[in-house]
């Protein structure tokens, strides 16, 4: 299947998201439209749109008349709480949606798993982190949890700001394979247990 070409807005959003996840921008730093427009060789419009999108996703915070600020990662106690909520959301979607999981939706999850495997094979941490989230989002959608994705993304973005699970790329892939295999068997209990083992 050929994917549609990305718009300029999508390209800028994706590049900035990569920069945020990789730590290129220091937490608490202000981002300026005009500076980034110059860097990317675009007008300020697509940068402004990217700021809005990434603010909705939880990576940035808007401040009137000042611009946008890179959000700080959560402190350890907050991260523990955020992780707990994220697990609950995914477990709820799986428990509710697995009985109605279709083969077509499962193929979409399989596709995202293949992307994660390629990222793990390549060993590029930022790509692994983003493919990891994409895989979990594919599960949410496959299980009918589209209405939960907005709130869930906010939690994931905070966790990505301190993503440190890349010391063993093979283990990262195996944990996600365990989740997928449980979903393939329509075993919600096993899938939830695999989610709990993976999200830390």
UniProtKB/TrEMBL annotation:
Keyword terms: DNA-binding, Transcription, Transcription regulation
GO molecular function: DNA binding; DNA-binding transcription factor activity
Top-level taxon of origin: Bacteria
Entry's transmembrane regions: none
UniProt-listed Pfam families: FCD, GntR
UniProt cross-references to SUPFAM superfamilies, sorted A to Z: GntR ligand-binding domain-like, Winged helix' DNA-binding domain
Ranges of residues in domain HTH gntR-type: 6-73
InterPro entries attached to this UniProt entry: GntR_C, TF_FadR/GntR_C, Tscrpt_reg_HTH_GntR, WH-like_DNA-bd_sf, WH_DNA-bd_sf
Keyword DNA-binding: yes
PROSITE patterns in alphabetical order: HTH_GNTR
Protein name (database record): Putative HTH-type transcriptional regulator YdfH
Organism: Rubripirellula amarantea
């Amino acid at each position: 299947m050929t994917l549609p070409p990305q718009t300029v807005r999508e390209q800028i959003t994706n590049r900035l998201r990569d920069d945020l996840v990789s730590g290129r921008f220091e937490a608490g730093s202000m981002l300026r439209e005009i500076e980034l427009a110059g860097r990317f060789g675009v007008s300020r419009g697509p940068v402004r749109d990217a700021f809005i999108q990434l603010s909705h996703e939880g990576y940035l915070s808007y401040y009137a008349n000042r611009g946008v600020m890179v959000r700080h990662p959560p402190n350890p106690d907050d991260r523990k709480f955020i992780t707990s909520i994220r697990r609950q959301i995914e477990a709820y979607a799986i428990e509710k949606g697995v009985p109605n999981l279709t083969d077509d939706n499962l193929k979409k999850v399989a596709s995202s798993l293949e992307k994660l495997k390629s990222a793990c094979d390549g060993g590029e941490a930022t790509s692994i982190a983003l493919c990891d989230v994409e895989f979990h989002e594919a599960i949410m959608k496959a299980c009918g949890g589209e209405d939960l994705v907005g709130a869930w993304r906010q939690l994931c973005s905070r966790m990505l700001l301190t993503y440190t699970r890349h010391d063993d790329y093979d283990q990262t892939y195996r944990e996600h394979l365990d989740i997928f295999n449980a979903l393939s068997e329509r075993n919600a209990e096993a899938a939830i247990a695999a989610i709990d083992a993976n999200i830390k």
